[in-house]
């Protein structure tokens, strides 16, 4: 940012002394240009956080400069044209400084709005990420449930009771994950299918146990009959 060029003015020693006496504060130094002073005050974007306090201080100095300029004009009725031009330049510099500060303040507001928008977008992305993770987890559990119910049906048909005993508790645990989705038609159908398989398994298991018991009893009777027959045969031979 370049400083506005002004024609070089030669002032009397008295005027220069008065101006030098006025420009002794942190924000008004006669040897430092306007733009250089602004860059020094705000070297980084982070330093803009101090803008409000700097504005208050500068406005206070501007008020003091205005008062001193008015005093100089009032107490020096014989100020020549060159000195009046110098005072005019000083006032213009003050106005330019105010404009520059307002411009910086506006850019700061714009930067704050951008930060707020970015923060809002990041929060929305985080919510979307959590929703996506939950959806993937639900789909994974649904796949496990469907595969488990299908396998359970095949095991019931094959009377593979060892696999049924090992996997049925896991299938029931996964089904509990979908308690919140009981109103869903797909989950309701899977739950009904699982209930039918459990009912069928109960009937089939009871029948198989009954058959096994009867078969075992018949084998026991056959062994007892065979033993008695053998014993009777031995007695007759004697």
From TrEMBL:
Signal peptide: none annotated. It comes from the Eukaryota. Residues 33-223 form the Vps53 N-terminal domain. The keyword Coiled coil applies. GO terms for cellular component: cytosol; GARP complex. Residues 214-238 are annotated as: Disordered. GO terms for biological process: retrograde transport, endosome to Golgi. Pfam families: Vps53_N. Keywords: Coiled coil. Residues 228-238 have a biased composition (Low complexity). InterPro entries: Vps53 (IPR039766), Vps53_N (IPR007234). Residues 65-107 form a coiled coil. PANTHER family: VACUOLAR PROTEIN SORTING-ASSOCIATED PROTEIN 53 HOMOLOG, VACUOLAR SORTING PROTEIN 53. This is Vps53_N domain-containing protein. It comes from Caenorhabditis tropicalis.
């Amino acid at each position: 940012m370049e400083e506005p060029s002004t024609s070089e003015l030669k002032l009397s020693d008295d005027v220069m002394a008065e101006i030098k006496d006025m420009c002794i504060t942190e924000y008004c130094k006669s040897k430092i240009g306007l733009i250089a002073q602004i860059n020094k005050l705000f070297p980084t974007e982070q330093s803009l956080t101090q803008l409000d306090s700097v504005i208050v201080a500068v406005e206070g100095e501007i008020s003091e400069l205005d008062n001193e300029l008015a005093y100089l004009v009032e107490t020096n009725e014989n100020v020549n044209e060159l000195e009046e031009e110098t005072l005019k330049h000083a006032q213009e510099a003050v106005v330019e400084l105010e404009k520059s500060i307002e411009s910086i303040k506006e850019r700061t507001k714009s930067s704050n709005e951008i930060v707020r928008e970015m923060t809002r977008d990041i929060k929305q992305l985080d919510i979307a990420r959590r929703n996506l993770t939950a959806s993937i987890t639900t789909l994974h559990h649904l796949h496990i449930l469907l595969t488990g119910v299908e396998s359970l049906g095949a095991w019931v048909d094959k009377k593979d009771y060892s696999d049924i005993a090992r996997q049925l508790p896991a299938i029931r645990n996964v089904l509990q994950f979908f308690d919140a989705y009981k109103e869903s038609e797909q989950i309701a159908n899977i739950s009904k299918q699982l209930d039918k398989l459990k009912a069928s398994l109960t009937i089939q298991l009871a029948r198989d146990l009954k058959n096994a018991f009867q078969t075992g009893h018949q084998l026991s009777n056959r062994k007892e009959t065979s033993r008695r027959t053998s014993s009777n045969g031995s007695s007759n031979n004697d």
